[in-house]
Write a structure and sequence with these properties.
12 helices, 357 residues, eight-stranded mixed sheet, alpha/beta, single chain
Length: 357
């Protein structure tokens, strides 16, 4: 659903998170002079990444046929996507570096996407971040009112790229997370960049994958990596609406053979940021590396391919009997639901539909 920005915002809605931001220390907390380990520093980054290019973001987040048609439309009009949607000279990031020496293999990294506009200063989370040796980074002007594709996702990727250019980072311990609407954006980031983010912390916000809520599967090689991603849901026991949303999201992951999931339900928490103890526990679970059941995964992926083949056969049958409208609807549904898993077959179908005119 197009809202604002060149690439379009996949999610809408703004949560009243000002009081939560203040609770966490995001709004008013200022960094000590000089920054450095044990302090939060506001930084203007300068380092761009090929992973944050506009075309690359679209390739990873849009269904393959939708992406191709968008390219064709731009080409027909003689236009191109801007190379980078973000002008880093105009952006600020809050960076917290844990006290003490870096871990032997480098720091871990948590890229945090907030629902509010201010860059998050993790005043109450420092103890947990220190214990886990995690650098924390959060962009300003990346809240729920901003476009996911044009701002929130590229800012998250650029935060990762810039921090790893400044500090020794263990690539096996790079995570993305968020709160509420920021958690939903973090889910998309984890799905689209599983080659960057090895785990995702979903705090009080999630959506089903598979196109129903605008979260599409990336190209097949990336989705296979996502099936290994560590996914931790952590929603307060009194946040009933988001607990229900989590259940729907988890069910969709299982449908697409994603099983590396852990669910935490902190007691006495409503729709709010985690307290320090709950974050510490969530990070413990996020950093676990349980062995995946390769036989279960293989059987599930085989079932998924059979389901996809059946849908493709239905579209081909509609074409064969001259039902172009029926074929068009089936092709559109396959593109949205299976995303990158449907390529290249979806292109062949679309070509047959076009030639049947």
């Amino acid at each position: 659903m197009l809202q604002k920005g060149v690439l379009a915002d996949l999610r809408g809605g703004v949560l009243g998170a000002v009081c939560v931001a203040a609770w966490l220390g995001a709004c008013a907390q200022r960094s000590p002079a000089g920054g450095g380990p044990g302090a939060t520093e506001d930084i203007v980054f300068t380092q761009y990444s090929p992973l944050s290019r506009s075309e690359e973001i679209a390739r990873r987040t849009l269904p393959p046929l939708t992406f191709r048609r968008g390219q064709e439309l731009f080409a027909a009009k003689g236009k191109k996507l801007r190379e980078q949607q973000i002008d880093l000279a105009k952006e600020k990031f809050a960076v917290y570096v844990p006290a003490g020496a870096p871990p032997n293999d480098g720091y871990g990294l948590l890229v945090f996407i907030a629902p509010w506009a201010e860059a998050t200063h993790p005043k109450r989370w420092r103890g947990a971040l220190d214990r886990h040796g995690l650098i924390f980074v959060s962009a300003a002007n990346s809240g729920n009112e901003e476009s996911i594709l044009d701002r929130r996702l590229p800012l998250a990727v650029l935060a990762y790229e810039s921090v790893r250019g400044r500090y020794p980072i263990d690539p096996k311990r790079v995570y993305v997370g968020g709160l509420s609407g920021g958690s939903r954006a973090a889910e998309i980031a984890a799905l689209a960049w599983p080659d960057v983010f090895r785990g995702v912390l979903l705090n009080a916000g999630s959506d089903p994958i598979g196109g129903g809520q605008g979260i599409y599967l990336p190209p097949a090689e990336l989705f296979r990596k996502f099936q290994e991603t560590r996914i931790v849901y952590v929603t307060g026991e009194k946040d009933e609406g988001n607990l229900a949303s989590d259940h729907i999201s988890q069910r969709s992951l299982h449908e697409f053979c994603v099983f590396n999931i852990e669910i935490l339900t902190p007691r006495e928490l409503w729709h709010q940021a985690l307290d320090s103890a709950s974050l510490d526990q969530a990070l413990d679970v996020l950093e676990e590396r349980p062995a995946l059941d390769s036989e279960k995964l293989g059987q599930c992926n085989a079932r998924l391919q059979r389901d996809l083949a059946s849908k493709i056969a239905e579209a081909e049958a509609a074409l064969a009997r001259g039902d172009r409208d029926g074929a068009r609807g089936r092709i559109k549904a396959i593109d949205a639901h299976y995303g990158g898993l449907a390529a290249p077959a979806i292109f062949d179908l679309d070509g047959k539909l076009t030639s049947a005119r």
